[in-house]
């Protein structure tokens, strides 16, 4: 009975939170911060923004080469993406003396690590100490990872986050993966599958897909039995290696856009599929980007007309 009531409460909570009359913040009693309780620098930012409903205000002080810095974060408004974890409108600035400029907060690190580390050694699972340092031109974040380990890996070293270019440098990080990178390892298969694999065949297929992405080895894709895993495996390899010889596999799977990056560095949205590209070249045309129309076109030789993406005689 308690379980049914809990489910009913969650449903009602979700419906009410999506209505225009009440916010999730109100339902779960997320208290606002009194503006006068914020630091003087945070209040300055709040006043300039004209915000009245404040959810959080923080002011972190750093001393770098004798210079006093303040990293200020202010959050306001109604929470978004609730109840999984409310996200508010926010402003992050760095004060150097009385002057300040926008300064990005450190984002989740996992998506910026290399593939094997990202899967087996997620840095967001480990604690780090953040500091501001001067790179000679401006201030950047320095993330210090003391030696830490879990059952899967260890991590140690210093990473850099450049707020202005929004780039990470993990060259100062060292790590060791404890799980053997071998699909015969039951521990590796369990880790990669979680509760998502129903059979041993699925466990091996998912493991082969992972190994292909780590070692960039097409042989792992070839032995995958499940067609979906096999398709995903080839897609990962194409993006990782830009190996055009794999693109025919994607045509067989009718994944037409998987090979765009092989023959162009332009944005995905500006390109047609690899199949059109091949049809153009095989019919004697040239694949060329038209800056005026912002798309790729098949340019045919003299005496030929373009029909779709093929060149045919007049």
Structural account:
With 314 residues, this protein is an alpha+beta fold. The protein folds into four domains: 2-60 and 72-90, no CATH class; 110-177, no CATH class; 179-259, no CATH class; 264-314. 32% of the residues lie in helices and 29% in strands. It has eleven helices and 13 strands. It has helices spanning 2-18, 24-27, 40-49, 115-120, 186-193, 200-215, 218-222, 227-241, 247-252, 260-263, 274-282, and strands at 54-64, 67-80, 87-96, 99-102, 129-134, 139-149, 153-162, 167-169, 173-177, 286-290, 295-299, 304-307, 310-313. The strands form four sheets. Strands 5, 6, 7, 8 and 9 form a five-stranded antiparallel beta sheet that branches. Strands 1-2-3-4 form a four-stranded antiparallel beta sheet, with helices on one face. Strand 6 and strand 7 (153-162) form a beta hairpin. It is extended.
Q: How widely separated are the two ends?
A: 77 Å
What is the oligomeric state here? single chain
The chain-level structural class is: alpha+beta
What's the number of extended β-strand segments?
Answer: 13
Provide the number of structural domains: 4
Overall pLDDT score: 77
Shape estimate: extended
Q: How would a crystallographer describe the biggest sheet?
A: 5 strands, antiparallel
**Unreliable stretches:** 1-29, 265-272
Cα Rg: 26 Å
Order of helices and strands: HHHEEEEHEEEEEHHHHHHHEEEE
> What share of the residues lie within helices?
25-40%
So how many helices?
11
β-strand percent reads 25-35%
């Amino acid at each position: 009975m308690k379980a049914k009531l809990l489910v009913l409460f969650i449903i009602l909570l979700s419906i009410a939170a999506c209505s225009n009359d009440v916010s999730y913040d109100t339902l779960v009693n997320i208290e606002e911060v009194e503006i006068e309780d914020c630091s003087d620098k945070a209040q300055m930012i709040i006043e300039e923004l004209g915000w009245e409903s404040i959810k959080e205000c923080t002011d972190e002080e750093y001393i770098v080469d004798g210079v006093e810095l303040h990293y200020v974060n202010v959050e306001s408004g109604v929470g978004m993406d609730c109840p999984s974890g409310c996200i508010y409108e926010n402003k992050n600035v760095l004060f150097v003396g009385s002057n300040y400029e926008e300064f990005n907060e450190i984002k989740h690190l996992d998506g910026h690590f290399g593939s094997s580390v990202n899967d087996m050694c997620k840095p967001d699972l480990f604690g780090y100490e953040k500091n501001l340092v001067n790179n000679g031109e401006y201030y950047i974040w320095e993330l210090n990872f003391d030696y830490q380990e879990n059952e899967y890996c260890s991590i140690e070293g210093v990473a850099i986050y450049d707020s202005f270019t929004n780039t990470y440098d993990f060259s100062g990080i060292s790590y060791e993966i404890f799980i053997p990178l071998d699909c015969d390892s039951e521990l590796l298969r369990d880790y990669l599958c979680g509760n998502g694999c129903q059979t041993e065949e699925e466990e091996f297929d998912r493991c082969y897909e992972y190994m292909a992405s780590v070692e960039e080895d097409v042989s792992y894709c070839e032995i995958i039995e499940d067609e979906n895993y096999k398709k995903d495996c080839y897609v990962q390899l194409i993006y990782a290696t830009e190996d055009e010889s794999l693109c025919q596999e994607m045509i067989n799977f009718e994944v037409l856009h998987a090979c765009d990056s092989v023959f162009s560095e332009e944005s995905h949205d500006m390109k047609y599929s690899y199949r059109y590209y091949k049809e153009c070249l095989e019919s004697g045309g040239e694949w060329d980007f038209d800056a005026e129309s912002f798309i790729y076109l098949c340019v045919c030789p003299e005496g030929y007309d373009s029909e779709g993406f093929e060149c045919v005689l007049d």
